[in-house]
Amino acid sequence: MLIELCSVDDIVPGMVTRVAGPRVPVPLALVRVGERVYCLDDTCSHETASLADGWLEDHTIECPLHESRFDVRTGAPDCPPARRPVRVHEVHVVDGKVCVEESSVAEAG
Q1: For 26-84, what is each residue's pLDDT tens digit?
Q2: In sequence order, what DSSP letters do the residues of 27-80 get, joined into one string?
Q3: How many domains does the chain have?
Q4: What keywords sit in the KW lines (predicted)?
Q5: Considering only CA atoms, which of 98, 96, 81 is closest in space to residue 44?
Q6: Angle at CA 100, nearest 5°, toward 96 and 101?
């Protein structure tokens, strides 16, 4: 089952959009690079910091707390202090709406 997060037009290229609340069990970060939208867990795997408060460059998001960087396509970190990846979720754009699989988000809890 798909969870509708927002309109694709709400995702500004070069910015990170945080989605939290009753629709999703964990906060998510949405990123638009070109026409592609990516979704990953919004919490850094090193420390409890919102990646949406960080910086985005191309396909890399940087945590605002200790500057760990993650690939938005894979969730893999590319520098310490983070050693574990953040979870990524498959995005479906349906009728202009950004959606993710409910089961993949629920597993994050």
Answers
A1: 999 999 999 899 999 999 999 889 999 999 999 999 999 998 999 999 999 998 899 99
A2: -EEEEEETTEEEEEESB-SSSS-BGGGSEEETTEEE-TTT--EEETTT--B-ST
A3: 1
A4: 2Fe-2S, Dioxygenase, Iron, Iron-sulfur, Metal-binding, Oxidoreductase
A5: 81
A6: 135
Residue of 64, 58, 59 lying closest to 46 (CA atoms): 64
Q: Which pTM was predicted?
A: 0.90
The CA distance from 91 to 99, in Å, is 6
Q: Is the dihedral of CA 8, 12, 14, 15 positive or negative?
A: negative
- Please state, in angstroms and rounded to a whole number, the distance separating the CA atoms of residues 43 and 34: 23
User: Looking at residue 99, which CATH number applies to its domain?
Assistant: 2.102.10.10
